[in-house]
Amino acid sequence: MSTMYRYTLPVEQTNWKFDGQSETCFTWEYDDSRAALLQLYDKGKKQQWDAAERIDWSLDLDPENPMMLDDRMTDKERREARHHLQASQISQFMHGEQGALIATSKIVQTVPDLDSKFYAATQVMDEARHVEAYSRLLHEKFELAYPITHGLKSLLEQGLSDRRWDMTYLTMQILIEGLALAAFQRIRDQSKNPLAAAVNAYVMQDEARHVAFGRIALRDYYPQLSDAERGEREEFVVAACWHMRDRFNQLEVWQRLGLPTEECVRLVDQSDSMNQFRSRIFSRIVPTVRDIGLWGPRVQEAFAAMGAIEFATVDAVALLDNDARVADEFDARLRVHDAAPQ
């Protein structure tokens, strides 16, 4: 069945096009490269995987709780609301991955150095695979999809319409990918459904490389900027993080289910679990932003106000390395399962 028939809103209401401005940059220096980026490029080539083969799509999802995540809702509320809440989350993952697909193709076009073009080319394929995997999960298992939220749409539009190549990196590789890693991790580590957990584990293996790519490129570039130019980037980081933090209220789900929207949003905003979630979503962003040199007073004050400043001391590289290991562990368990007598 076409995605058009899965959406909870008519797609005519959510069509989205905008004019983006960018400069195409060719490079004629084929030898000047950075070892760290070429290592990532090598990993990107070797770790390409097929969503149709690596994931066991014969596994089923419970329609009342597709990803088997624990919650605090009553039995009556769980039956329909959980399905919609989880479908809404996976839908935003899928839309975000398409945004990453477009952003990375733009990076290939606009970034000035060849090693970055090489690695970004592998990421374009990664993002296409992620869109495929999440689309299949929604179509075959959830049988439901939500349109892109206004918050995600506006953030993507900012990053994709800016002419400066580093702003595409900052928006996608650092902020959106960093936020996604934290959201994916909850499902990977807490879902009791092996299909839902595996999809997110394998996507995270790729996303770990993507964040590392942005971190390496911007860590080298931002020290070259003037204080005013870095200040502009810091202001963008602060505004984008507040924007992302405040959009997690499931407004579209409450509207779709016909529940009292204002009351549901208020209860979500006041809940301890949401406050904890809103600080944890920056666990990947904070250490990376510090590492790339956008760590002025306004950024630190904003992360402190969000309850996320504690993540500044986290070893971002170790987290990304662990994401790769966990995906390999999923493969190892699958091999053991396949080898077991049936």
Give a written overview of the molecule.
The model has no long low-confidence stretch (mean pLDDT 88). Helix 4 runs antiparallel to helix 7. With 342 residues, this protein is an all-alpha fold. The two termini are 33 Å apart. The protein is built from 14 helices and no strands.
- The fraction of residues assigned to DSSP E strands is under 5%
Pairing-aware structural class of the strands and helices? mainly alpha
The radius of gyration computed from the alpha-carbon positions, rounded to a whole number of angstroms, is 20 Å
General form = globular
**Roughly how many Å apart are the termini?**
33 Å
Oligomeric state of the chains present here: single chain
Low-pLDDT segments: none
Largest sheet: none
Percent helix: 55-70%
The helix/strand series, from N terminus to C terminus, equals HHHHHHHHHHHHHH
Question: If you average the pLDDT, what whole number results?
Answer: 88
Number of strands: 0
Please, how many helices?
14
Give me a quick take on this structure:
Helices cover 68% and strands 0% of the residues.
Keyword list:
14 helices, 342 residues, mainly alpha, 68% helix
What topology does this entry show?
Blueprint: H1 35-46, H2 51-54, H3 75-110, H4 114-142, H5 150-161, H6 165-190, H7 194-221, H8 227-246, H9 251-257, H10 261-270, H11 272-280, H12 285-291, H13 297-305, H14 316-339
Helix pairs in contact: 1-4, 1-7, 3-4, 3-5, 3-6, 3-9, 4-7, 5-6, 6-7, 6-8, 7-14, 8-13
